[in-house]
Amino acid sequence: MNTYIKLYLLLVRTSIRSRMQYRFNFAFGTILAAFIQLSEFLMIAIVLAKFGAVRGWSVHEVGYLFAVMTLSKMLYRTFADEVHHLERYLVEGELDQLLTKPLPVLLSLMPRGFRLMPGELLQGGGILAWALGAMLAGGQVTWWAVPQTLFAVLTGAVVLFAIGLATATCGFWTTRISMLQNMTEDAAQTAARYPLTLYPGWMSGLLLTALPVGLVNYVPALYILRGELGAWVFPLLAAAACLAVLLALRFWKFGISKYQSTGS
């Protein structure tokens, strides 16, 4: 186990070093990512400023949902971005190279694209600080909301990783997975930036079970911001994150066993 950890950290350092060779591109990409993410939320904020609230959710509460999703996605894509890009490995035959390495395939894959995402961190952290600050000042939440939110971000990252890994595993049969990722990751995460009460019952149920992105931000927000549900939400989130990642890992292991080499 210690050997695996040392090799993993070595691969992470190598990936960071290679990315930092182009510092201008890194800095420009950081600014651009922060601007794009901020502009997305500003569009939401403008609509909420005009109508006041959406199904009883204030602009600060929606900002909280947006920020928690952004930060959870940032953590997932920082440590496992190459899982999201498995299609390239399948199409170009690069996965065959990983199968010959001493590390498990997933452990070899994840650090190859270790991705620093300061733009998303600044944008998500800034919106979260603004939203929680306003709700703290208004007495809606207490300082306990801060550690509770950090816990939600961590468990949310695990849930998003599990969804991403399960989606990527489908590529062992289909090869092309970008269209599937548009539904299971991109569209689902975008939908969960808003209160799930906006959607029909079947859709909100889907976003809490089969594609459980609602567990990332909506469910913890019900307790942290609104006092609904109960403190049992946190062990539920931890258990759901563990179950999701275990199921995804089992599916991944099964998919690897069915992988057909490109022969290139």
UniProtKB/TrEMBL annotation:
Q: What is this protein called?
A: ABC transporter permease
UniProt cross-references to Pfam families, sorted A to Z:
ABC2_membrane_6 (PF06182)
Q: InterPro entries from the xrefs?
A: ABC-2_transporter-like
UniProt signal peptide: none
The lineage is: Bacteria, Bacillati, Bacillota, Bacilli, Bacillales
Keywords on this record? Membrane, Transmembrane, Transmembrane helix
In its UniProt entry, the species of origin is given as Saccharibacillus alkalitolerans
Is Transmembrane given among the entry's keywords? Answer: yes
Q: Where are the transmembrane segments?
A: 26-51, 57-76, 121-145, 151-175, 196-219, 231-252
